[in-house]
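Backbone-to-sequence.
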């Protein structure tokens, strides 16, 4: 009798643990809401503006000026680098994720996983000026 109760408790504990583990994973996969002003712009500011502001080598060569939301959405001299809602095909994400021949930031340390994810979530959430 005594033994039975104990294993019952153990099972309940295991079930609870499993439930929480599963609930937790689900939560982690839900992308948090990302904003341009608080999440995206700070990354561009300290990782891209060195070269992608007026007169910088990145802006001069590609036409991409990252000082403002409008500049980011306008893209390069060849056209937009963002397809709102689709980070898979957006050049911005392709470049910072190293999925193309060249990677951005050019000749600099790559973005962290967390920064890459923020840019991905923001584009997938519609690339809004929020
Ligand atoms: C150290 C300078 C430097 C930094 C920092 C930098 N870039 Fe660039 N970027 C360049 C240069 C130079 C080019 C032009 C490359 C060329 O045309 O060969 C360029 C081109 C680009 C292009 C156009 C590529 C194409 O296919 O035409 C994009 C998009 C871009 N950069 C995004 C970014 C983003 C986003 C960041 C920050 C995460 C960033 N860059 C940081 C120098 C830089």
């Amino acid at each position: 009798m005594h033994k039975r109760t104990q294993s019952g408790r153990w099972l309940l504990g295991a079930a609870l643990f499993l439930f929480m583990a599963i609930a937790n994973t689900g939560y982690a996969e839900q992308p948090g809401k990302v904003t341009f002003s608080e999440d995206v712009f700070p990354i561009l500011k300290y990782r891209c503006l060195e070269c992608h502001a007026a007169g910088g080598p990145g802006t001069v060569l590609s036409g991409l000026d990252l000082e403002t939301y409008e500049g980011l959405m306008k893209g390069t001299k060849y056209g937009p680098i963002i397809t709102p809602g689709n980070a898979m095909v957006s050049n911005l994400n392709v470049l910072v994720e190293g999925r193309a021949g060249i990677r951005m930031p050019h000749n600099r340390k790559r973005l962290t996983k967390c920064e890459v994810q923020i840019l991905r979530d923001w584009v997938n959430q519609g690339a809004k000026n929020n």
